[in-house]
Amino acid sequence: MSGLNASLGYFVSVVIFAASVRTLLKKWPRLGFMLEFASSFMLVACRLEVQTIVEVGEWAGGLGPDVTVTMLFVVLLTNGVVSGGASGNPTLVLLKFLQLETPTLPTLLAVLAQFLGAHLALFVAVYYWSLELTDMHMIKNLMARECSSSLLVSVLQGFFTECVCTLVFLLIHLNLRRRSAMIRIPLIAALLTFLSHTARGYTSAYMNPSLAYGLTFHCPGFTSVQYAVVYLLGPLTGMILALLLYMGHIPRIFAKNLLYFQKTRFRVPKGDKGEKKKM
Fold first, then answer.
1. Is the dihedral of CA 101, 105, 109, 111 positive or negative?
2. SS3 assignment for the chain
3. What would the 3-class secondary structure string for 190-241 be?
4. Using one digit for the tens of pLDDT, what is the confidence trace for 251-263?
5. Which residue has the higher pLDDT, 277 or 57?
6. Model's pTM, two decimal places?
């Protein structure tokens, strides 16, 4: 249990730091894109520790799969509550851009901030593991340079896995956007947990390029280009397909609806009908 207590302390510290950064940034609306930095940092830093528990804790710390799945759900739920409107996911930021909800420059800055947050989270996690507070973290520190890749299948299979998972996730996400946060956030957290656990033997279904960058891009086994095909092109393709299925078109690219046609109904005023009868 000492390993679990250390992890809980780490989670709390990361959440407090991210929440503090968000509070400070709210005073400067022009730096709103940096909210994505805080959200990405919190998500990646916490997921790195969850990954440690999955890889090491289940056999070195005696933690069962039920514990790891529960912790993953709690992390995703907490990230959704604390982050507010920020997602920490470049795919969702680009989705808003294609829907004409955000202009070009803030979108680019937000994506850049997300990758910076992921990079800082990786640096902080590695430093935390180097402290070797528990046996689990000592083992993880020894394994840090030779980490296990989350991509356990071929690049093509990985691409389709990320694409399909992103497609399912975003279709549900788009339909829940106008729901109350009390309903939307737990459902999204449960869905992400389910997809991640289901695709654990494939790609872990990150559906988030900056998250994948922090968790697996530095691991040996595949090149950066191959990782990009799976964890960047896969989610982006799934996002475009989800937007097409949901709206029938991509507003940023073209306005014509390709899938759904709305029938326009014209009603003739009653006065006009009476005049026609008299004639």
1. positive
2. CHHHHHHHHHHHHHHHHHHHHHHHHCCCHHHHHHHHHHHHHHHHHHHHHHHHHHHHHHHHCCCCHHHHHHHHHHHHHHHHHHHCCCCCCHHHHHHHHHCCCCCHHHHHHHHHHHHHHHHHHHHHHHHHHHCCCCHHHHHHHHHHHHCCCCCCCCHHHHHHHHHHHHHHHHHHHHHHCCCCHHHHHHHHHHHHHHHHHHCCCCCCCCCCHHHHHHHCCCCCCCCHHHHHHHHHHHHHHHHHHHHHHHHCCCCCCCCCCCCCCCCCCCCCCHHHHHHHHHC
3. HHHHHHHHHCCCCCCCCCCHHHHHHHCCCCCCCCHHHHHHHHHHHHHHHHHH
4. 888 877 777 765 5
5. 57
6. 0.88
Q: What is the pLDDT of residue 133?
A: 85
| 90 Cβ neighbours under 8 A, 6+ residues apart | 110, 111, 114, 115, 208, 209, 210
In the predicted structure, residue 224 carries a pLDDT above the cut 50: yes
Q: Name the token pair of 196.
A: 């991640």
Radius of gyration of the chain (CA): 22
**Residue whose tokens read 């805080």:** 38
User: Residue type for 267, please?
Assistant: R
Q: What is the pLDDT of residues 86-114, one digit of tens each?
A: 889 999 999 999 999 999 999 999 999 99
Burial 105-144 (b: 16+ CB within 10 A, else e): ebbebbbebbbbbbbbbbebbeebbeeebbebbbbbbeee
